Amino acid sequence: MPIYTKVADDGGKWIEIGASSGGELPGVGGWATITAVSGVYTKPRYEYEDADGVVWVAYEFTDDGYVTTTAGLADLLVVGPGMYYSTATNQSLSGGRVSMGLMSLPSAKFKCIVGTKKNQTMRYEPGSSFIRDDNNEPIAVGHRGLTYTTYPAAPYGAFADMEGGQYFNGYKNSITGVEKEYGQGYKLNVSLGVDPGAAGQTSSQAKDGVVIIRVPAANAQSVVETFHGWNNYASVENGVVVETQKLPDNQPRTLSNEWVDAPAEVSTGWIYDGSEFVPPAPPSNKELIAELEARVEELRKA
Amino acid sequence: MVDVSGVWVKVYPDAAEPGLPGFGGWADVTTVTGDSGNRYTYKDIDGFDWVAYEWTDIGTVTMTEGLADALLIGGGMGYMNNLSNSGGGGSIVTNILNFEGGIHNVDIGVGKPAGNNFEQYTGTPTSVGPIHTGYSYAAGFSYSGTTTDNDDPRGTPYPSSITGSPETYAGGKVNSTSRLGDGGANAGNSGKNGVAIIRVPAANALATIPGTWGDL
To answer: Is position B89 within any domain?
Structure first.
């Protein structure tokens, strides 16, 4: 509806006009503006026009990073990583879970944490995807995928529908301008996803999580972009990694010499012999059988 | 200020479209059905008037196309005999979501008692139309409650004031008696049922409520 107000021609100056009634969601407000991003994100950023003629900008973090915004709404998608389990050809594995929708953000520098896929050896390690605020509180979470054997109640896909027989459905969304199915579950000859958060039998089939933030292009006009990777460092005790931390690779190292340069995939529990990192040994068949037998025994007692 | 003698003129050929660019405005909620639920009517700290419809059993909601603030809590997982990885909280969808116009079925996730297999003790999804939570989290997970970078959230119930008062939902492996969406903490403590809550400004809340609902 047009807006009318009292005006006068005062020597060519416009005087007192009404405020626009558009651009905001009553009770919540308008879009946030993205002012800066850093870390590992898809380059160039996604910029596209949707079917209604609205031009969008989406930043997709495929590894950790930061996004700074003014207060306001942003369209978010946080997807946890999928699970893989190379020796379990008939196992069902679950994809990452999702968090989606418009969220009202405060003015802040948010940390975007992207969970990486896990295998059977790493099945007890944490590793969900997050957006965290200035206080490091999670404001959106995408839980990691899990194994059916270790976590028997793990859902298979982010949008699984067991009653409908669709155990492996992920969440379909076009936030980057192209529809993808996030967090798809895996079962041999039944379901294999290719998008973020998908589970798989092998490492190459399973996918890491992702964090995506989208606003109209008008709210991402002057974004300061600083793309950088991360260096991984490990603290080792008695030949075993007890802690790791990642620091930007575009800054001088500030850690003490006790921290050892480590490949990106190294995490707590890896073995270090002074020259090379190796992952902890996967459970042997004997150990797996014992684990399953213990579970069967628990089921009999239930 | 210049006296313009009460003459009104059009300033903008077309004012900006109402609502959020790219998404539009709030949906109108025109009809709600269901045997069990509540309507919350309140004013927030900014003086804005809201209405939240809460389903605690299956039903329907009829809406125009548009946005609605949603909190969907799935059913909690049951505890399984000494299995430390059971008892996950009900899965959560929370944010402002875009809904298609029409009638949407509302399904409430069922919390499960201790059971013998995946399907028997995994809490089922809560859904409103095509939006749904997925099945309950595993391993005592919840949506809140972690303090370091990528630690999996476990245990802590999710806080929300969508009904106008602070509440918590869907803790992981919590020995509660009634909190919606909790995962069970022991064999005698079942997972709790979920809930679906849809909030819109009072001006968009056009539906009357069934006589069996609470009006709060």
So the answer is: yes
pLDDT at position A19 is 43
Name the residue ranges covered by the structural domains of chain A.
Answer: 34-227, 230-301
Rounded to a whole number of angstroms, the distance between the first and last alpha carbons of chain A is 65
Other beta carbons less than 10 A from residue A70's beta carbon: 16
What would the mean pLDDT of B133-145 be, rounded to a whole number? 79
CB contacts under 8 A, B 69-128 vs A, are 70, 77, 80-83, 85-86, 88, 91, 93-97, 114-119, 121-122, 124-125
Contact, B129 vs B99, CB < 8 A? yes
Indicate whether B17 belongs to any domain: no
pLDDT of B115 reads 67
* Contact predicate A197/A210, CB 8 Å: yes
From the CB of residue B59, how many other CB atoms can be counted at a distance below 10 Å? 22
Contact B138 A52 (CB under 8 A): no
pTM equals 0.87
